[in-house]
Design brief:
Distance between the termini: 73 Å
EC number: 3.6.4.13
Organism: Echeneis naucrates (Live sharksucker)
Largest sheet: 7 strands, parallel
Catalytic activity: ATP + H2O = ADP + phosphate + H(+)
GO molecular function: ATP binding; hydrolase activity; RNA binding; RNA helicase activity
Bound molecules: adenosine-5'-diphosphate, magnesium ion
Keywords: ATP-binding, Helicase, Hydrolase, Nucleotide-binding
Radius of gyration: 28 Å
């Protein structure tokens, strides 16, 4: 029996999923797999684990496991459920990549999907668990997809062995056909339980025009107008990334300082004058059928006069919120510290209006209470990866219609709301209906290696909810063969190509060792070879830095003010100076950007990895902390595979000797061998676009060494690179020189 506090109990009863408890539990009793879908905020994540707990699914030896694609959600949901159930975090716990609070008493365990995948490697039958819930399946994260595929096999196996197990797949939007109408996945389609959320109508307002560039500025204007003109209610702004989130937060807060802090009298008056007119008395259109700019005056950005539309309407005369009330501005994004994240769930200070500026996190993973207005930039930032050339880029693209409607829905949780889309309805009409599954947009060599380690040899036959392309699978197997992780298939003349498509190379002992390192196979290979010449500690530091990526602060950003601009210039100069120092001298120089990374990691650790050191030297503190954790984790993993090396993290790591640098370069080459580029000789340059360009195996166009690279001045003939990023040009990142034979 669960002993909940009365106020918790009361809040739970309002959640739509509570009405379905019986239906859900009956379906779970009678079926091995069940799909539950319902609007975000209907209570799936917080309540379903409690239903299962109360029905006794954790009372035997098995426990309840819930996977989340985001670390944020795993941590915050475990705390929430512990609190709701009045149980200690010893019982309702979480485990994410580097940390957790799981104990022997744990009965409900929230974890990231990657954590569960690792557990499957240790115990394929997952015997610790009586139920697994795969949450946020609609996000279609790669690990989630693989887990569903694996569990579709594990569940029947468990039943056959007489130790039954249940699988619940929970999803927000309604596109569940990938899971249910997929014979390869579930031969008998699992029942789908729909939870009807009490969703209030949300009126959607489109912009007449679509700002192509400064959508953050547009979001700023819109938020200010909402605050100035519309009745109380929280505002949630969707932007694309952490940098924009911070920049908008700063701008909005700056506006506040111009306002007087509210007196209590003032607050009292505000409460008195709460809207008597119903702003929602508009025709309540379904979320996706809003009419352009018709309803509220603030839909139109063309001139300030249109702001007055709302005032022209006599019934709206009293609606205007008092703009002297400060906005209580909070950022929200995945990498934000948990204490900061938790703030969005607490009521804003009295006499303020809540304004959360968020990335996609707020779309489905976290439900923020009290939101009445949503401002949607309509974009999303995604990493793109070219399957053929391996070129990566971060691109801001339009989101999907499903995703835009999710965002709009956030405004209708507690009362009718409004969503302001910073783009026109015509543009919305061109959005794709759904977002693509992540697995189709990224290289899959890490997954293929993990699956081979699970003895799934024919990866092409794996029951993916959405399969990666055959091309991507073949490319992955080829790379793994070249790294020595898989055994070369027998070459058979002309039908070779045909065979390739159905590759099923078995894993090698080296491959098994590589699979035990939680990094990309290329880097795992470097770790596996790092034993030589006492290089291991350097290889570990380097691999950690290459895995975390983006360790240097982005100082190319535009500066808002003059003051900011001179600060930026200073910091750029400082970072350049430090890069030069970290690049070392003599032989070290040839290790290039990788030496710079190594130097940065070493120096930062030496200084105790403080925010100040990072701030002063142009390093991203978050990245450095992550590198520190990953170094620890990799060190443990290496010791586990190969105890005799007894490697440890030395906070006072000295720079590698010349001899070690030579070894390091060889080790790097074994992982990046296919990322080789050769400088085009001056005499061969016919087309000026090839000046200082490098030729790679896979691309027709030149790639370049970035001006900030340690090798920009040297331009060695042969280099290997970590990746190619397309920004202003095709630039190689993480460049290191290779000696010609
Ligand atoms: P779903 O998984 O269906 O999207 P959730 O179970 O996450 O729904 O959320 C149910 C309700 O619990 C929401 O109204 C949400 O605001 C509330 N809630 C979730 N986490 C917290 C928290 N940490 N503090 C307060 N309320 C929370
Ligand atoms: Mg949820």
């Amino acid at each position: 029996p669960v002993d909940r506090l009365p106020e918790i109990q009361e809040a739970r009863l309002k959640l739509p999923v509570l009405a379905e408890e019986q239906v859900i539990m009956e379906a779970v009793r009678e079926n091995p797999c069940v799909v539950i879908c319902g609007e975000t905020g209907s209570g799936k994540t917080t309540q379903v684990p409690q239903f299962l707990y109360e029905a006794g699914y954790a009372s035997g030896s098995g426990i309840i496991g819930i996977t989340e694609p985001r670390r944020v959600a795993a941590v915050s949901m475990s705390h929430r459920v512990a609190k709701e159930m009045n149980l200690s975090t010893r019982v309702v716990s979480y485990q994410i990549r580097y940390e957790g609070n799981v104990t022997d008493d744990t009965k409900i365990k929230f974890m990231t999907d990657g954590v569960l995948l690792k557990e499957i490697q240790k115990d394929f039958l997952l015997q610790r668990y009586s139920v697994i819930i795969i949450d946020e399946a609609h996000e279609r994260s790669v690990y989630t997809d693989i887990l569903i595929g694996l569990l579709s096999r594990i569940v029947p196996l468990r039943n056959k062995k007489g130790i039954p197990m249940k699988l619940l797949v929970m999803s927000a939007t309604l596109r569940v056909e990938d899971f249910t109408d997929n014979q390869k996945l579930f031969r008998t389609p699992p029942p789908v339980i729909k939870v009807d959320a009490r969703q209030f109508p949300v009126t959607v307002h489109f912009n007449k025009r679509t700002p192509l560039e400064d959508f953050t500025g547009e979001a700023f204007q819109k938020t200010c107008k909402i605050h100035r003109m519309l009745p109380p209610g929280g505002i949630l702004v969707f932007l694309t990334g952490q940098a924009e989130v911070h920049s908008l937060c700063r701008r909005l807060r700056k506006c506040n300082t111009k306002l007087k802090p509210p007196s209590f009298m003032h607050v009292y008056l505000c409460l008195q004058s709460l809207p008597r007119i119903d702003l929602d008395n508009y025709s309540a259109l379904p979320v996706d059928e809003g009419d352009e700019d018709r309803e509220a005056g603030i839909g139109d950005e063309e001139d300030e006069a249109s702001d007055l539309d709302i005032g022209d309407d006599p019934s709206n005369a009293e609606v205007k919120a008092d703009p002297s009330i400060p906005l209580y501005v909070l950022p929200l994004y995945s990498l934000l510290a948990p204490e900061q994240q938790a703030k969005v769930f607490r009521p804003p200070p009295p006499g303020t209006r809540l304004c959360v500026v968020a990335t996609n996190v707020a779309e489905t993973s976290l439900t923020i209470p009290g939101i009445k207005y949503v401002v949607d930039c309509g974009r999303v930032k995604k990493r793109f990866y070219d399957r053929v050339t391996g070129v990566s880029s971060f691109k801001i693209t339009w989101t999907s219609q499903a995703s835009a409607n999710q965002r709009a829905g956030r405004a209708g949780r507690t009362e009718p709301g409004h969503c302001y889309r910073l783009y026109s309805s015509a543009v919305f009409g061109d959005f794709s209906l759904f977002s693509e599954a992540e697995i189709t947009r990224r290289p899959v060599e890490d997954l293929v290696l993990q699956m081979k380690d699970l003895n799934i040899d024919k990866v092409v036959n794996f029951p993916f909810p959405t399969s990666p392309s055959a091309e991507a699978l073949v490319a992955a197997e080829q790379l793994l063969v070249s790294l020595g992780a898989l055994k070369e298939p027998p070459q058979t003349g002309r039908i070779k190509e045909l065979k390739r498509a159905k590759l099923s190379c078995p894993i090698t002992p080296l491959g098994r060792a590589m699979a035990s390192f939680p990094v990309a196979p290329r880097y795992a290979k470097m770790l596996a070879l790092g034993k030589q010449q006492d290089c291991l500690q350097y290889v570990i530091a380097l691999v950690a830095a290459m895995t975390v990526r983006e360790i240097f602060e982005d100082l190319d950003r535009p500066a808002g003010t003059e003051d900011e601009s001179s600060k930026l210039t200073q910091r750029r100069a400082r970072l350049t100076q430090m890069r030069r120092l970290w690049a070392g001298q003599g032989a070290s120089l040839l290790l290039g950007d990788l030496m710079v990374m190594l130097g940065a990691v070493g120096a930062c650790e030496f200084a105790g990895c403080t925010p100040k050191f990072c701030e002063d030297n142009g390093l991203r503190y978050k990245a450095m902390v992550e590198i520190r954790r990953l170094r620890g984790q990799l060190t443990n993993a290496v010791n586990a595979v190969c105890p005799e090396v007894a490697v440890f993290v030395d906070p006072k790591m000295t720079p590698p000797t010349e001899h070690q640098v030579v070894c390091l370069r060889q080790i790097v080459l074994t992982g990046l061998g296919d990322h080789l580029a050769r400088r085009v000789q001056v005499e061969d340059v016919l087309d000026p676009k090839w000046k200082n360009g490098y030729k790679t195996a896979l691309m027709d166009d030149p790639v370049f060494i970035h001006p900030t690279s340690a090798l920009f001045k040297t331009l060695p003939e042969f280099v290997v690179y970590q990746e190619i990023m397309e920004t202003a040009k095709m630039y190689m990142r993480g460049v290191s020189a290779v000696e010609a034979e």
